[in-house]
Amino acid sequence: MAILSALKRMFGVQQLPTIRLDIAPRIGADTIHHIRDNQRQASASGEYLQNQAVKALKFARAELVDDRNNGHRHENRINGEGNIPAYWHIAYSAGFPISELASTIDEYLEQLEHFDKEFSTIWQPARRIIEVQFKLEEALKGLAWLVGMRATPAQLARYLDCCGPPGQDALFDRIVCQLGFARPMARRLRMPMDHQHLMALIDGAVADRPKLAVRALEKWARALARSGAPSKPGDLGYVGQWDLPLALVVMLWDIDDVGLSDHPHYPRDLVAHFRAYGGHVLPITSGEHLPEPAPGKRINLDQRHGTDLERWLALASDGDEVAVAAALSSLDETGALESSADLAFGALAEHGQAICADLKDDETLEAQLHALIAARAPGSVFESDDIDGNGAARCEAVMVRAQAWIQRSAGNLRLLQYSSGQDDWRALLVQRKHVDELEALSQQLRLAGRFT
Questions:
Q1: What are phi and psi of 392, to 5 degrees?
Q2: By the 8 A CB rule, do 247 and 147 touch?
Q3: How many CA atoms lie within 13 A of 18 on its CB side?
Q4: Hey, which bits of 207-268 come out as E strands?
Q5: What pLDDT, in 10s, does the model give residues 9-48?
Q6: Backbone phi, then psi, for 125, in 5-degree steps?
Q7: What does the DSSP 8-state code read for residue 296?
Q8: Which Gene3D superfamilies match (predicted)?
């Protein structure tokens, strides 16, 4: 009662929703549930996790009441603190029966539908969950929970309606089509560094998928450890870390997970719950898959049009018309590349067509490099997550490996590093046949610095 009173005082509401008191796992008095990995290692007692799960559910319910009463204050809560998936995560780690988690699916969808409206209002009507890159990963996690808990087709349809239009991300669209929904499919990954291994897993031969799944999980675990987040039992604040997007692919493509089952970050019980009911999702029949959308407008690089500056930007962006327009609009009042190189590189990088990162920012450099490779050499997998260290030294190591990989695996391309004496990284990935012309144009446009 003290907790409920505190919540009422905190959020200024007199009536909180009814909170079930039977959600604790049904375990014996002498049993302690730890973080739900196969070794049952724990960074905290099972009792602590159970209490945290109960609190998370109460908090999510109270927050929805508060936001409805007091207006939109937390449009980001759809995929953050104070939502039902936060409860699912902790409750799963604590060993709660998955059927208990599934009993709150409709509550989550109600919460999601409410905040989806607020999200669109506060950001802009065209922006939905998967259209914002940092929320795409959370959208995949939410879908993994729903599939693993055996959400009904109607529930899945409600969830997808909140996620936004198709054609935003190749992985998300492939997964949705695998569920049986007809939708156009994007051609590119929004987050290639994070998701290229999952696409390789989906596209791989059936016999190769088990080992590709292990490789994808190992990559995910390395990235988690490097992020600084609590990544293993014993770390302060560790309440379990689960590679849910991988589990989603394993479930929907029926991949043998024997090699994954002992990994502490693989949600084995969630996948087992899915498979216990037949191992497939009842598809929603909606006709043939729609054709892929037409690719964005591209400039024919074999024909020269426009000014020297427009030609330079076209070669730098591999003919991406949108990126060229963005770069042109980013230049300073002189409209010259000579004085606006940083602005041009920044605009190209925002559209996935260049590297533009601080000297020590290995995360940004790595993400931009993977986006470039995914755009220029679709289907290729460049590995860099196993490179240790951080900062400028790691940036250098990533670029050295990329140079070698491109020479070996994408010989029609060349990675050009731009040096201007500043403390930053600037680079382009250009078709080899256009390198000489690009460098000549750089001199004509008096671009400070040089390409190597």
A1: -60, -40
A2: no
A3: 2
A4: none
A5: 333 333 333 323 233 333 322 223 345 544 344 444 567 7
A6: -55, -30
A7: P
A8: PA2201 C-terminal domain-like (1.10.3920.10)
User: What distance in Å separates the CA atoms of residue 105 and residue 211, rounded to the nearest whole number?
Assistant: 33
Tell me how far apart the alpha carbons of residues 123 and 322 are, in angstroms, rounded to a whole number.
Answer: 22
Distance (Å, rounded) from C-alpha 374 to C-alpha 133?
Answer: 16
What the block records as the tokens of 422 is 């500043």
Separation CA 355–CA 204 (nearest Å)? 29
246: closest CA among 223, 275, 217? 217
**Per-residue pLDDT reduced to its tens digit, 211-268:** 999 989 998 888 888 777 777 777 777 778 899 999 999 999 999 999 998 899 999 9
Q: How far apart are CA 149 and CA 109, in angstroms?
A: 14
Measured distance CA(320)–CA(180) in Å, rounded: 33
- Retrieve residue 46's tokens: 């099972």
Please, which residues bridge with residue 298 across strands?
Answer: 320
**How many angstroms separate the first and last alpha carbons of the chain?**
68
CB 50 within 8 A of CB 100: no
Q: For residue 135, what are its two tokens?
A: 């929320």
pTM: 0.70
Q: What amino acid occupies position 259?
A: G
Closest to 230 (Cα-Cα) out of 222, 241, 246 = 241
Q: Which of 275, 242, 253 is nearest to 200 (CA)?
A: 253
How many angstroms separate the CA atoms of 64 and 82, rounded?
8
At 428, is the secondary structure helix, strand, or coil? strand
Q: Which of 389, 351, 347, 387 is nearest to 371 (CA)?
A: 351
